[in-house]
Amino acid sequence: MPRRLTNVPAARPHRPSLRSRVTGGLTAAAVLGTMLVAAALPAHAVTPSAAGTLDAALATTTTSPKLTWRPPALTSPTTVTVSSTKHNLSLAAGRDYIIKMPTTPLDVRGGLTIAGGRNVVLIGGEIRSTRTSSVANDKRGLYLVNQTGTLHVEGLKITGSTLAEGINLDQRAGGTVQLQNIRVDTVYGSLNGHHADVLQTWGGPATLRVDRLTGYTTYQGFMFQPTQFGSPSPKLFDLRNINIVGRTGSGYLMWRDGKTWPMKITNVWGKPSITGLPRGQWLRPDNTTYGFGYVKVGTPSTGDFVPATRAGTAYVSPGYL
Q1: Staple 57 to which of 24, 123, 228, 245, CB 3.0 to 4.6 Å?
Q2: Which residue, 238, 244, 235, 135, is CA-closest to 198?
Q3: Residues facing 22 on adjacent strands
């Protein structure tokens, strides 16, 4: 587990059917054999001014499946271009942004940090970690901090021979995070060393939306502790079309705190490194009340939801449902 920003207390060490389910106390309604959240999540549309800027990224010429959530509406967005010398971004409160990734993989110490802003959109790109360091933060892919509106990250590949953390969230401002068509391959950690995570949160967000994510790990996959430092309980974590693969030595592929905030699981898969490993040894908790009881064992019949060639610097969005 990495250390946090200097003004954030370090987290405690941790050890941790295609039908969709809602767990954790949400009212649900049965529709066509699927459990759906009764209060539908709002769809977002890009405003005409923002749409012009995003045209290239949002071209719909691919044959991959369309995604669930559109980018948020943007008002007079500022475009920020990421580079090897500009990758720790501090965005103005209340402002909207488009984050433009470089055309070649970003390989820098600490990866990409995006802190602040209101509605923020990043589509396409690759982050690599190939530098050696004894500090886990130096080998992190993406760190997302306190957006107040909707943060939309799509088509991003995170990889590298020394990658220790995929995506870390400190979203105590209570915003919404959307992660779609993401590939994290591979995060490297161990029981007695750094507890690597594909996706970890220790604060918020109020709403987490994930559609199409593939992650590989030698230790942990999802680590959800959204109220660890006193944040309010999330409104919903909505997880769809995900597969997490444990490589040799991996531990918990999906872990969440013992709180009862709601989580929706749709077509989510986990493959531990040991065939036949009891579910309770790689899913915590493994129940259908507020845990990972509806996670399927293995990999989808069609392979990874996000193949290695889908996300990255040449990414083209398939569009949205």
Answers
A1: 123
A2: 244
A3: 264
Give pTM, 2 decimals: 0.84
Max distance between CA atoms of the chain, in angstroms, equals: 53
Tokens of 87: 């990758």
Q: Which tens digits make up the pLDDT trace of 71-113?
A: 999 999 999 999 999 999 999 999 999 999 999 999 999 999 9
Tokens of 15: 């050890």
Both tokens of 266, joined, read: 């749709």
Distance, in Å, from the CA atom of 256 to the CA atom of 291, rounded to the nearest integer, reads 7
CA distance 161 to 128: 8
Assign residue 281 a region (left: φ > 0; alpha: ψ between -120 and 50; beta: otherwise): alpha
Task: Give the distance from CA 231 to its chain's centroid.
Answer: 19
DSSP 8-state assignment for residue 86: B
CA distance 199 to 182: 11
